[in-house]
Specification:
The protein starts with 9 loop residues before the first strand and ends in a 5-residue tail after the last helix. It is globular and about 35 Å long. The protein has helices at about 15, 30-40, 60-70; strands at about 10, 50, 55-60. With about 80 residues, the protein is an alpha+beta fold. The protein is built from 3 helices and 3 strands, in the order βααββα.
Length: about 80
């Protein structure tokens, strides 16, 4: 799938979602507003606050989400 996506540690939202400015396809192809709605509803993993202005997600949680989505399972 995405061989350069980290297997452990933390990832930022710009690494998870598509980014037209950077020209990256994204690991989970949804909009930013859909992502945050999914986080709020529990569909997507909860973030970890690394600082007052820094939010990240566990890379393992994002990989697990992508695996479920690729198998057609609900997130």
């Amino acid at each position: 799938m995405y061989h350069d996506f980290p297997t452990d540690g933390f990832v930022r939202l710009s690494q998870i979602l598509p980014n037209k400015r950077l020209g990256t396809p994204g690991f989970v192809p949804v909009s930013k507003s859909s992502w945050w709605a999914g986080v709020k509803s529990g569909r997507y993993p909860q973030p970890v606050k690394l600082g007052p202005r820094t939010t990240a997600w566990k890379a393992a949680d994002i990989r697990a989400l992508a695996e479920r989505l690729s198998r057609g399972e609900a997130a």
